[in-house]
Write a structure and sequence with these properties.
The chain has about 50 residues and is mainly alpha-helical. It has three helices and no strands. It is flat.
Length: about 50
């Protein structure tokens, strides 16, 4: 059940995220990646509970 919710969450958030990131040229700083992970995890936790 948890994995199902994780998959639905990832599908809804990352609909075209990979394509956008792949097609953008640039460098992501460690802090930007960390902020993205924190944002995604907080949204995931909100949806789970």
């Amino acid at each position: 059940m948890v994995i199902k919710h994780m998959k639905e969450f990832i599908d809804s958030i990352q609909h075209d995220l990979v394509n956008r990131l792949w097609n953008e040229e640039g460098y992501f700083e460690e802090s930007q990646i960390e902020n993205l992970v924190v944002d995604l995890m907080s949204e995931f936790i909100k949806k789970m509970f």
